[in-house]
Amino acid sequence: MTITLPDLPYQKDGLAPHISSQTLEFHHGKHHSTYVANLNKLIEGTDLAGDTLEDIIRKTVKDESKTAIYNNAAQVWNHTFYWNCMKPGGGGMPMGAIAEKIVADFGGYDTFVEQLKNSALTQFGSGWAWLVIKNNKLTIMKTANADTPIAHNIKPLLTVDVWEHAYYLDYQNARGTYLDVFIQNLINWEFVNKNLV
Predict the structure, then answer these.
(1) Span 64-121, pLDDT tens digits
(2) Which pairs count as long-range contacts for 131-137, CB under 8 Å and 24+ apart, including other chains?
(3) Burial letters for 99-131: b for 16+ Cβ neighbours within 10 Å, e otherwise?
(4) Judgement on whether residues 33 and 68 belong to the same structural domain of the protein
(5) 173 in helix, strand or coil?
(6) How far apart are CA 107 and CA 85, in angstroms?
(7) Core-most of 40, 95, 158, 188, by most CB within 10 Å?
(8) Residue 157: which CATH number?
(9) Do 65 and 134 reside in the same domain of the chain?
(10) Residue 65 belongs to what domain range?
(11) How many domains is the chain built from?
(12) Is residue 110 assigned to a domain?
């Protein structure tokens, strides 16, 4: 099947002033779009051409001859997931089942925030910080470059993109400020709750 670029779940200016329409124009319209185009070229005429994005990721993660396919497929998936982790007027305290689970597994919201931010800040170079569920317990993990939890049979609930193109136009090299804004103003807790089910 042809892998397609999904629409953003909000308008290009929907996350402003926290993430500008210019950043989304480049990040979604150029970076994400390029991963989709590259992936389609790489799988054309191969036995992966009819697979879902998730199947492509799982089939190529441990195959060094297919690293380019894995990297592009994982980046397509990660970005689609990331867009849905944000919403206009989001952020702040979680609600519902995820709020209870954060208290149970981290001891409180502040500890969760501290661990997520630390993970994102200490990811050297490009990558992602994730809230995942592993062995029925919430935990924070980070992945380098394109790597994704789903390739390792770990269920992601939330991610923040720490590749520079995610924040550089708006925050330059102030990754910490971008992370604070993401946590306080952008997290889509309804989406996180849906993933928890």
Answers:
(1) 999 999 999 999 999 999 999 999 999 999 999 999 999 999 999 999 999 999 999 9
(2) 131/156, 131/157, 131/158, 131/159, 131/192, 132/156, 132/157, 133/157, 133/196, 137/105
(3) bebbeeebeeeeebbebbbebbeebeeebbbbb
(4) yes
(5) coil
(6) 23
(7) 158
(8) 3.55.40.20
(9) no
(10) 21-84
(11) 2
(12) yes
Question: 58 and 110: one domain?
Answer: no
Same domain? 192 vs 101: yes
Residues making up the binding site for Mn(2+): 27, 79, 161, 165
pLDDT of 1 above 80: no
Residue recorded with tokens 């070229």 = 41
Looking at 31, 56, 84, the residue that finishes a domain is 84
DSSP H or E run through 78:
helix 67-84
Q: Among 58, 84, 110, which residue terminates a domain?
A: 84
What is the C-alpha separation between 188 and 10, in angstroms, rounded? 12
Provide the b/e sequence for 40-50 (b: ≥16 CB within 10 Å): bebbeeeebee
Q: Annotated binding site: which residue ranges?
A: 27, 79, 161, 165
The strands making up 127-134's β-sheet, listed across from edge to edge, are: 137-144, 127-134, 155-161
